[in-house]
Amino acid sequence: MRETSITDNATLSAAPENFTVTFSAATGLANVTLTNAAGRNIALAYTPPHAMTTTFTIPLPTLAPGAYTISWRTMAHDGHVMPGAIHFTVAS
Amino acid sequence: MEADPLAPALFAIKLGLYGSALLAAGLDLHASLNIIARDDRSRALRIATVAGIFALIFAALRLGLANLQLGGANSLLDPATLSWTWPALGPSSIAVVVGAVAMAAGWLLQSSIATAIGAVAFAISFGQTGHTQALESPGLAPWAAAAHVLIAAFWLAGPITLWPTRSLEEATLTARVTRFSNFAVAAVPVLFVLGLWLALLLAGGWAALLSSLYGQLLIAKLAAASFALALGAYNKSVVTARLQTAPETGQRALRLTLDLDAVLFLIALAAIAAATSLTGPPSP
Questions:
Q1: Which residue from B3, B118, B218, B249 has the fewest beta carbons nearer than 10 Å?
Q2: Among candidate residues B88, B87, B66, the one with its CA nearest the CA of residue B77
Q3: CB B203 within 8 A of CB B141
Q4: Residue A69 to chain B, least CA–CA distance (Å)
Q5: Does the pLDDT value for residue B19 go beyond 70?
Q6: Quick check: A79 and B89 CB within 8 A?
Q7: Residue of B nearest to A49 (CA)
Q8: Domains of chain B
């Protein structure tokens, strides 16, 4: 993973409208999940494309103040599965 | 990056896959190249076939584990998850199936051609997945990896083929060691050149090779292979001659060097299994 639009452990003053993750090489995004502080899944209106690319932009629902985790799992050309996650907080 | 709790399982599977595939391919190569004489090769081919079946099992486990890593606990045979994992691991898995079938045929039919096909198919399986496939322009790298693996397999099976068992006649052992050394002298330098070139290509240059964990694991593999090469040179220059002039002393020396070889090969296998499961090439 090269970069994400939300820094890990960031505290945001406003709820983000989307989340972008960029990889250093074309990668398949097999799944992405958003969970709240209680570990409950929050539905995403997003289906990852079934193609390998470097950048994925995931629209986020309206988020209330609180802590969240965005997790994803990717498949690389070389057959390796790479999990990733960032944690962030939307300030009240 | 998030830690993957299944990474240790992947390491164990890769260690098993690499070890069994290289052993199977190496023994079959020794048979195909007449290092093991025709009358004497049934046992080696049987061991190669069993190792080939283990490689097949480990390849299936690798695919299953990739599904679990990607899709979670219920995704072992999930078609949606397989649609991601199969394109990356399928060609390699198919090559392992072809190799295992050819090895079994080679054993049952005592066919040198079938055993050679089995060894080559196993070597090709290594180039069909892994880090060479993730290069922006793989070019010849996957084929170089296959050639590297084929020579490594030839070398790795040495301690088994050349082990001086009581049932092995002195003349037969000397013939095996001499013929093995003749091939090794030509092949092992190629193994080193390919290994170094691939390490530099995959790590992204000298600086990354020296500074990243991935690069350091590849260097550890090269270091283990270098020690094994030194032992090989000692075998060729001293032990081979001693086997003819003083068989008992020669066999003792051969056992010792082959024991050390086996330990060095295990270190090299563990290093490469770790490099391909617990870490990966540094980002450019």
A1: B3
A2: B66
A3: no
A4: 12
A5: yes
A6: yes
A7: B84
A8: 7-275 (1.20.1630)
Left if phi > 0, otherwise alpha if psi is -120 to 50, otherwise beta: which for B205? left
- Alpha-carbon span B13 to B27, nearest angstrom: 21
Closest chain A residue to B10 measured between Cα atoms?
A: A80
Give residue-wise pLDDT tens across range B49-89. 999 999 999 999 999 999 999 988 888 888 989 999 999 89
Q: Is the Cβ of B39 closer than 8 Å to some Cβ of chain A?
A: no
Prediction ipTM score: 0.82
User: What whole-number distance in Å separates Cα of residue B84 and Cα of residue B33?
Assistant: 39
CA distance B52 to B102: 10
Tokens 């990607």, located at residue: B70
Print burial letters for B249-266: b (CB count within 10 Å at least 16), e (below 16): ebbebbeebbebbbebbe
Dist. CA A70–CA A90, nearest whole Å: 13
Spatial distance between the Cα atoms of A79 and B14, rounded to a whole number of angstroms = 12
**What confidence category does residue B1 fall into, taking pLDDT thresholds of 50, 70 and 90?**
low
Taking an 8 Å cut-off on Cβ atoms, the answer to whether B66 and A85 are in contact is no
Average per-residue pLDDT for chain B: 91
DSSP B76-125: TT-HHHHHHHHHHHHHHHHHHHHHHHHHHHHHHHT-HHHHHHHHHHHHHH
Backbone angles phi, psi at A65, to 5 degrees: -55, 140
A78 min Cα distance to partner chain B (Å): 4
Torsion of CA B58, B62, B67, B73, to 10 degrees: 60
More confident residue, B38 or B224: B224
Q: What is the mean pLDDT of residues B170-180?
A: 89
Residue range B129-141, pLDDT digits in tens? 888 888 888 889 9
Q: Is A30 on the interface with B (CB under 8 A)?
A: yes
Residue A6 tokens, joined: 């939300």
pTM: 0.90
Residue B275: which pLDDT band, with cuts at 50, 70 and 90? very high
